[in-house]
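Cross-check.
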Amino acid sequence: GTDVLRYRATGTTTGSARRLSDGEEATLPVLPRKVLVTETIPVTVRGGEQRTVILEKLLENKQKGSSAIQNESLAIQAVSNPAWYAVMALPYLMERNDESVDALFYRLYANAYAKHLVTSDPRIEKIFEQWRGTNTLKSQLENNEVLVKTLLAETPWVRDATSETEARARVANLFDESRVRSEVSSAIERLQSLRNPDGGWPWFPGGRSSDTITLSIVSGFGRLRANGVNIDMTLPQSTLPWIDARLIEEKRLAEQRQERAHKAGNLALASEPVLTQLGVFALYARSFFLADAPPAGEAAEAHAWCMRVGQKSWTELSHNRSQGQLAIALFRGGERVTAESIIESLKQRAVGGPRGEQAADRKEDNWQGMWWRNRHPMWWSWAQAPIETQSLMIEAFDEIVGDTESVEAMKAWLVKQKRGSRWPGSPATANAVGVLLGRGDDLLGDSSLVEVTVGGESIKPGENGASKVEAGIGFFENRFVRREITPSMAEITFQKAEGGGLAFGGVHWQYLDHIENVEASGRDELAVTKELFIRTMTKSGPVLEPVVALEKVGVGEELVVRLKITSDRTYEFLELTDHRPCVTEPMDVLSGWRWADGVGWYQVTRDASTQFFFEQLPQGTHVLEYSLRVAHRGQASSGFATIRSRYAPEFSARSQSLSLSTQ
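Predicted model, tokenized:
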């Protein structure tokens, strides 16, 4: 909060004419020494495992003297089965209303998959009925507003929250059987009408046939059927001549390249052809329909050639997704040995593993499952889209070697990407939903709840202040305030039953403490640091000089605040609040969008802080700066910077607070 100091000033002047006097009375805002501090700990727990977190500062707090911290609130949350968020994501596929052909297909995909889920698993419709009128269908941005200090209405994300809530509410449409049947039929007819004479599909109606769009649609139909969805395959099967022509073209162009290389004396290129990314994609899409319509004639020869080349040169493929697609195509074509070799190679290059072997990973809760780093992080193509690549890997590991542990670890990575953001776009959402619900263990069938104990006392949902369990996702929480919070509550344990799937938890502790006592807090998942510099002019231009402790800074000088953010994953809807020193004034007071190094944010200047809102922050290290003017003399704290995910508030970090002396 803010206290006020009221003062009265009077003055008297004497002149030849008469004596005059005047006065003024006003209030000055005085920021208290104690500030509200939030400690958050994200928790990931798997079936048969237990995670214990300890709030060290609460454990040490004895509530003695005015210097002791003052507890405000302690909230413990658990999401027992986050896989249900995949069901909530299906309406997003129906939200795109542009005229692109792929948007039309993904609306078909969502409706067909929803029809399959309802007919194959009656629990889903029953659980949705329990969701009606509850907070379950609200956007994560709205549900988490109570855990962050900035009101959603004061952020630039109100429209995002509203649209996400509206999309989730439309989950009801998934269970209207007649509507779904009509949507699927209409989409198939529309896709048929938009196909070009050569058999392929354009990106937008009237355009040239797109290899990527056509192969995505055909393989999408194939994945639907592979996951048990009952859908008419006439449309993709009638596209097979187009794919066969693409494979014939792949062979012809490769032979031409070999011939040119031979004439140029480049024996390496002349002797070993390599499939292109689109050639591998075509081979993969064709593999879904080998039993329906085996290649014949010239197409059979081209298909066999592509298989032989793939067997010999798969190590030359530059993207993991292409290697996974080739492994599936080889496996379905009877080349099991090479397919298994590719899977073994991919497994050896993966990050993490099925059980998160390192103790340090468990301690820091940094286990993200099993995934792959991008070998070309500075540029991007469809062949290296991370969500689609991960989904393809799950399909390959499940179908080729039946590696259940790896499949579940990879699915855990997918779910964790949904924890801190939305899946990016329709292709990513469709692929992720397909493998989460159609591959590996039946995640939706897991009804076991996370067992949570606080200070040795078990939290029982619906009792003693704990919320009731939300159907499906198994969310519940318990909140304690002020005097209810004791040092014995510093130890909190989360446990999931053996055989259960992945579960999430979060601990949120708020307390008041002197600003000079606030320490930096961060993890590999998310961290922020703060530095102060003085901008001085030299003959060679402006130079930033670091502010050294106890060194006095002159009034009128420009103080540059540098904030460095590091993260081990991509986040959406991050909120960074930096408290300013009370002896300074902001130089840039206009709110608006700022851009630097490919990252954009919305910046707002408040009375005592500056806020930065990132709609998306890519994985890595990012530096941003803003300027203050030293306006008063004295000693002050620089204040600390706090960054927090609006989507998952348990992911937060805090910088240190620095001392500043001015003269």
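The first strand starts at residue 3 and ends at 14. Residues 520-663 form a domain with the Immunoglobulin-like fold (CATH 2.60.40.690). Passed to J.P. for a second look.
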